[in-house]
Every structure is written in structure tokens, then in C-alpha cells.
Amino acid sequence: MVVRITTAAVLIAVVLAVLILGSVWVYAAIAVILGAALIEYWNLTRAMAAPAPLWLLFPLSFALLLRDRLPLWADVGFLLAAATVLGLGTLVFVRDWRASLTRWALAVGGSLYLAYT
After folding, report:
1. DSSP per residue, the chain
2. How many domains does the chain have?
3. What residue numbers bound the domain in which 24 lies?
4. pTM exceeds 0.90, yes or no
């Protein structure tokens, strides 16, 4: 609990400093905060014995965060379609495929929740 309170205090100070500095720094600060939130989310899914795949969770989250800076053809629909095809297509070939759909859903759902809030 102390770690979370300390992290929150530091992040509040960082966010206030970044908001004063300007737009590029706002994206950088939000990316750092998103990274911390993703690590916490991944630890929660790992505790449920169905960890979200990191190779899908992190890139999709950061792509959704930077969706306004991506090329026009890489809209949200394209990102979600790519996450579906690549994610489910790859998870079919893992050793224990019984939890593959759950792990994929945790990665995509977590990415959508954390990148849009």
C-alpha cells in the first residue's frame, strides 16, 4: 500500500510539471503513467493464473494512446482487427491453448480500458 501511495504522489507531481511544459511532454508523461498501469494490470492478470500476453498488451495500449499521431490508415478499427488476427492467431500455437481466448480478451480489454481512460 505504501508503494501505491508513493507512486501516486510522485505521479501527481510529474503530471502537474508536464502539463505546465507542453503537449509533447504530456504524451510522454501519459505514456509513463500508462506503462505503470499496464504493469499493475499484468500483475493482476498473472495472479488470476491467466496472464495477459505482454507482446499484445503493451504495443496495443501504446498504439491506442497515440492513435491521433498514427497514420490515417491505422485507425482504431484497424488496430483492433490486427490485435484480433495476430493475437488469436498466435495464441492458437502456444503450448497450453485452453486459456488462450481468456488471455487474449484480458490483453485487448485491458488495453482498451487503460488507453482510453
Report:
1. -HHHHHHHHHHHHHHHHHHHH-HHHHHHHHHHHHHHHHHHHHHHHHHTT-PPPHHHHHHHHHHHHTTTTS-TT--HHHHHHHHHHHHHHHHTTSSSGGGHHHHHHHHHHHHHHHHH-
2. 1
3. 2-116
4. no
Residue 68 is which amino acid? Answer: D
Q: Which cell goes with 83? A: 490485435
pLDDT tens, 26-82?
888 888 889 999 999 999 999 998 899 999 999 999 999 888 888 888 888 999 999
Retrieve residue 36's grid coordinates.
505503470
